Amino acid sequence: GQNIDQPTEMTATEGAIVQINCTYQTSGFNGLFWYQQHAGEAPTFLSYNVLDGLEEKGRFSSFLSRSKGYSYLLLKELQMKDSASYLCAVSDSNYQLIWGAGTKLIIKP
Amino acid sequence: IAGITQAPTSQILAAGRRMTLRCTQDMRHNAMYWYRQDLGLGLRLIHYSNTAGTTGKGEVPDGYSVSRANTDDFPLTLASAVPSQTSVYFCASSPTGTSGTDTQYFGPGTRLTVL
Questions:
Q1: Considering Cα of B94, then B96, then B97, then B98, what sign does the dihedral take?
Q2: A9-13 and A103-108: which strand pairing?
Q3: Of the candidates B27, B9, B24, the residue with the CA atom closest to the CA atom of residue B89
Q4: Which residue in A33, A42, A101 is closest to B41 by CB distance?
Q5: Subunit contact A48:B103, Cβ cutoff 8 A
Q6: What is the pLDDT of residues A34-92, one digit of tens each?
Q7: Strands B10-13 and B110-114, how do they pair?
Q8: On the CB side of A33, how many CA atoms lie within 13 Å of its CA?
Q9: CA B40 to CA A80: how far, in whole Å?
Q10: What residues of B are in the A interface, CB distance below 8 Å?
């Protein structure tokens, strides 16, 4: 079967750095997405990785290792507005997205 | 309109009733999708459409139907609602028909409760 694993919940301090991990087992791989979802709102796109390595975009970076079936989202200089759920999704061999259950990130002052 | 709109925002429905959730996008995207989101589970694809006039089944299509008569609209119909269909429903779109590499843009969601 296809599976995406993420931690259910993480807590971090304002101003700090946090790494959210995602491991996947899918039939085929056509890229990995990270989305942010604030409570009661729609998911919004953060990043897309299809090649191994680190993609940096401002305070957010995303890393991919295809051989390990592993990705992480790195958030730097955390702000209270970063409190949200972070969703990992993998595009499988049929180009359909398989979604993880999401990681709820709680930021404390 | 800017982006994707969904209606209604929320609905309480008696079991056995028919219900259509509406979704409209103004970005001229080819592909559209319907997902349901339940606590503790990832988004699950119900149906999708790669282009106007075509539709396909996702992971959890039973009890749902869709149509894509034009580029902008992609309604989702529950023919006879059951309590297990209580969920938050998100409509999404992407520029091309290949969702695997496209960013998906989501509507605000419809919160549906079936009693």
A1: negative
A2: parallel
A3: B9
A4: A101
A5: yes
A6: 999 999 999 999 999 999 999 999 999 999 999 999 999 999 999 999 999 999 999 98
A7: parallel
A8: 26
A9: 23
A10: 40-45, 48, 58-59, 90, 98-101, 103-109
